C-alpha cells in the first residue's frame, strides 16, 4: 500500500483530536518514512494500523469518521484528478485507472447493472477489504462524488462484505442510503444516469497536467503479477475448471499453486467461488437468460442445485435477487 493511502487517515485522526503519531509508533511506522507518497507500506502494517487506531480511539466507526473528517488535500492526487474531469463517470473511471497509486493488490471497477452504476472495490487475488477500510473507502468515494458535482445525489444502495456492526446511526447519517451487509462485495450503487453529470470544476487543461503526472508515476511502478490474478484469469467467466486443470494451465503443481495462493491470503476455493458469484450476479441481470441456462453455464446439474448454492451465499434466492436489482433499494 502506498504512503498516500495513509495520509487522509492520519489527517482525519488529528482532526478528531487523536494522537496519530502514537498510533504510528504502536504500528511500527516511522512518521518520517511517510514523506514520499509513492513509497510502500506492507499490508500487514496497514492492517495493524487500523486495528491499533480503533483500539486506541475506542471509535467503532472509525473508518466512516476518518472519511468524513480528513481534509481534501490529504487525499493527494485522486480528488484533484476527479474534480477536473468532465463528468462524474469520468471522475470515477479515473479512480479505477489510478487505483494502483494507492494499493498494488486491490482494484476498483465501475460497471453498469441495468439502471444502476456500481463502483466496486476488491483484492486482485480475491476477497474483500476488512470493515474499517471498506467503510472508509465507500464513504470517501461518496464524499468526493458529491463534492465535485453541482447536484445533491444519494446512492441507491451501499453494499458491504462484512456483517452488520449493530447500531447504524452513523452509517445512515454519512451514507444516506439503504445498506446491505454480508453482500459479498464492497460497493457503491447509484443511478447510471448520474454518470453523465458534469463536474462543477471541470478543467481540461489541469486534467491533462495531472493525468500526465499520474501516468508517469504509474508507469514507474514495477510490474506485479500475483498467482491469484493468474488463477482468476485462467478460471475465465464461469469458474468451471478444477484446481488440477488451472494448475496445469499455469505450469504449476496443485500443491505449489495452493501454497502461493495461501501466501497471498487466498485459496483456489475462494477464487473459484468469487468468480462464480460474480458471473452469477451478472447473468441474473440479463433477463433473457433463464435460471436453467444460468445453472448450466455455471456447471450445476440442475436449477435446484444452483438455487440452493446462490441462496446460501447471498441470503436470497436467484429470483428475489433479480427482483431486488430492479428496485432503487437493491
Question: Describe it for me?
Answer:
The protein is built from 16 helices and 5 strands. Helices cover 51% and strands 8% of the residues. The protein has 330 residues and is an alpha+beta fold. Strand 3 (157-159), helix 8 (169-175) and strand 4 form a beta-alpha-beta unit. Helix 2 packs across helix 3. It has 2 domains: 63-219, no CATH class; 227-324, Orthogonal Bundle (Arc Repressor Mutant, subunit A). The protein starts with 6 loop residues before the first helix and ends in a 6-residue tail after the last helix. The radius of gyration is 20 Å and the shape is globular. The chain has a 5-stranded mixed sheet. The chain has helices at 7-15, 20-27, 43-57, 62-69, 77-83, 88-97, 131-148, 169-175, 204-220, 227-235, 243-250, 254-263, 268-284, 291-297, 303-314, 318-324, and strands at residues 106-113, 116-123, 157-159, 179-180, 186-191.
